[in-house]
Amino acid sequence: MSADKRYYVYILASGSAVLYIGVTNGLARRIRQHKEKLVPGVTQKYDVDRLVHYEWFENVRSAITREKRIKSWRREKKIALIEATNPRWIDLNAEWLDPARSAEVQP
To answer: Is 106 inside a domain boundary?
Structure first.
């Protein structure tokens, strides 16, 4: 399967732990847009640009269903989801921006 056939649900966080949940078919591109403050709204207003969690799906309906489900959760459950795979809340996108790793496949 090629990367362009994937759909991603992602969670971004700010330095003060404001969370944003979104869905996209181009994760690296979309995160770059958030980091460059090209996406108006919550992410721009509260500087929410650190990728702390993502999941991929083979079809858009599954991704949208998952996005809606996560959005409906209480904050504590969202935090538990993040911390299950990323307990230090590191920016998972940081390695994509490293020029030494630019030849690697990006989600």
So the answer is: no
Question: Count of domains in the chain?
Answer: 1
Q: For residue 87, give the CATH number of its domain.
A: 3.40.1440.10
Q: How far apart are alpha carbons 85 and 12 in whole angstroms?
A: 14
The predicted model scores a pTM of 0.85
Domain carrying residue 16: 3-101
Listed in sequence order, the residues at least 6 apart from 40 whose beta carbon sits closer than 8 Å to its beta carbon are none
| 41-57 pLDDT tens trace | 988 899 999 999 999 99
pLDDT at 102 over 70: no
